[in-house]
Amino acid sequence: MLELISEHACFGGVQRFYRHDSAEIGLPMRFSAFLPAHAEGARLPALIYLAGLTCNEETFPIKAGAQRTAAELGLILIAPDTSPRGANVPGETDAWDFGAGAGFYVDATEAPWSKHYRMYSYIHELRELAARELPVDAARLGIFGHSMGGHGALTLALRRPDLFRSVSAFAPIAAPARCPWGKKAFSGYLGTDEEQWRQHDASELMAAASTPFPRGILIDQGLGDKFLAAQLYPEAFEEACRKAAQPLQLRRHAGYDHGYYFISSFIEDHLRFHAGNLTA
User: Fold this and answer.
1) Local structure of residue 73 (DSSP, 8 states)
2) Distance CA 179, CA 184 (A)
3) Tens digit of pLDDT for each residue in 134-152?
4) Closest CA relative to residue 115, chosen from 80, 87, 152, 81
5) Which parts of 74-116 fold into alpha helices (H)?
6) Catalytic positions, written as ranges
7) Which of 194, 185, 50 lies closest to 124, judged by CA?
8) In what order do the strands lie in the sheet with 3-10?
9) pLDDT tens digits, residue range 3-39?
């Protein structure tokens, strides 16, 4: 059951913020939803947006500037929080890149994280909840995200291409098993078995696939991104797509950094990309 926290008129539609009790997380979770104007009884295509480290359900609707184009295209935009809140795991707020605000969209298997840090399963729970409680057409669902959320979007889509018809990302952590952020998160949440890590690594998943998204994947990457060389590895995902015969638009942009000025500059392209895939 959804609890409406607030709503705001926005480009002819409404931007809402919800709270609900999550069976997967075992705690209340929050998410945002932009609903464009629509006829009563209509079911609309929807996008789930996964945010990055330190972000929450408010970051995308406030900073990305996505609602104007979503209203034009008739797209619902759903953005969950990035981790459980109030799990009271010792040390969960000690670092900005692990614990609270940094769930990495995996189901933790290591104690004490495994009790509540189940963000992979939570995204599927949210997908089902949205289809049940909101005017979402579950057959026309896409996913996208930024940084840690870009990693989440790619891995969720690659593991379940039957559920997500479209996927894109901004500056994703494209090979987390190779980078410091990913190694820290995966060892903490998943333990030392690197085979488990590979199940949440987009480059590894893509390398073992065969054209999972024939209509293509869109990725935008700023070349002024201070995390590019050490953390993101877009070239690894690009090579994996070549092996998988996966069409990929990997657009590299001089001067753009890792933040929401970058995202807001190209958000319209992503929404139109998804709309084309979800309405075809």
Assistant:
1) H
2) 9
3) 999 999 999 999 999 999 9
4) 87
5) none
6) 147, 225, 258
7) 50
8) 3-10, 13-21, 28-35, 76-80, 44-50, 136-146, 166-170, 217-222, 248-253
9) 999 999 999 999 999 999 999 999 999 999 999 999 9
